[in-house]
């Protein structure tokens, strides 16, 4: 339940924190009002770790 239920309720877990390079298509994500805040938080969290 919640605002991001469709985005965050996946049946599988993907851990990308150990990858050497992660690329996000921000131009495409920016057009999606549901994904943009979630991906922005994810990128910030990955940068801090």
Structural features, described:
There is one protein chain. The protein has 49 residues and is mostly helical. It has a domain of 28 residues. Helices cover 47% and strands 0% of the residues. The radius of gyration is 12 Å and the shape is globular. It starts with a helix and ends with a helix.
**Class from secondary-structure proportions:** mainly alpha
Overall outline: globular
Distance between the termini: 28 Å
Rg from alpha-carbon coordinates? 12 Å
Fraction of residues in β-strands: under 5%
Number of helices: 3
Q: Bin the helical content.
A: 40-55%
- Low-pLDDT stretches are none
Mean pLDDT value = 81
Q: What's the β-strand tally?
A: 0
For the sheet with most strands, the description reads: none
The oligomeric state is single chain
């Amino acid at each position: 339940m919640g605002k991001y239920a469709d985005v965050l309720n996946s049946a599988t877990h993907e851990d990308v924190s150990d990858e050497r390079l992660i690329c996000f298509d921000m131009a495409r994500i920016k057009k999606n009002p549901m994904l943009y805040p979630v991906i922005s938080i994810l990128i910030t969290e990955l940068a801090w770790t």
